[in-house]
Design brief:
Length: 196
């Protein structure tokens, strides 16, 4: 039933929020150019790889070696505003509609992290990844990696309709307060290296 309600709600929100989609897309187009969307492969349920969608907030500026510059040097002024309002996450409604994601679940992380997980941390892939999750409402990027994983695992082991409702309600409050968007000393969060 969760999958059914996820898809119905995603379709409803895509239609309802279509003016915001158009406005954000136009802002990105005029300020950053194309592409409008950021696409990245991420592991989902049972570690199946899917394409995650977000609104683009960074430029692709590189150094003399051809490597991308650090996030803080590529994030634009418009990008900061879009991120502070969590509008960059809106295209993930299409991921929910496709069935790759749910509204609530552990956030989908980078593929490169897969071999770094402990057996306990791998449990986060026993459910679909979510647009929001318990770790997001308990601190988001202000949490350490170990704290995030513990919240993810707690969700997997205790998921329920009421827990999902609580997380969605708390997510709305967090977005309105703009809390936990970045980790101290980082634009978003430091990379996971298997120990931190």
């Amino acid at each position: 039933m969760k999958d059914f309600f996820d898809k119905i709600l995603a379709l409803f929100l895509i239609i309802l929020l279509s003016p915001i989609f158009i406005l954000v897309a136009l802002l990105i187009w005029f300020s950053l150019g194309r592409p409008i969307l950021f696409r990245q492969k991420r592991p989902g349920y049972k570690e199946k790889i899917f394409t995650l969608y977000k609104f683009r907030t960074m430029i692709d500026e590189r150094d003399e070696k051809g490597d991308l510059l650090p996030d803080e040097k590529r994030l634009t002024k418009i990008g900061k505003i879009i991120r502070s309002l969590s509008l960059d996450e809106l295209p993930q409604l299409f991921n929910v509609l496709k069935g790759d994601m749910s509204f609530v679940g552990p956030r989908p992380l980078l593929i490169e992290y897969l071999p770094l997980y402990s057996e306990r941390q791998k449990k986060r892939h026993e459910v679909k990844p979510g647009i929001t999750g318990l770790a997001q409402v308990m601190g988001r990027n202000a949490l350490s990696w170990q704290e995030k994983f513990e919240y993810d695992i707690y969700y997997v082991e205790n998921q329920s309709f009421w827990l999902d409702l609580k997380i969605i309600f708390l997510t709305i409050l967090k977005v309105l307060k703009r809390e936990g968007i970045s980790q101290k000393g980082h634009i978003t969060t430091e990379k996971f290296n298997g120990n931190n």
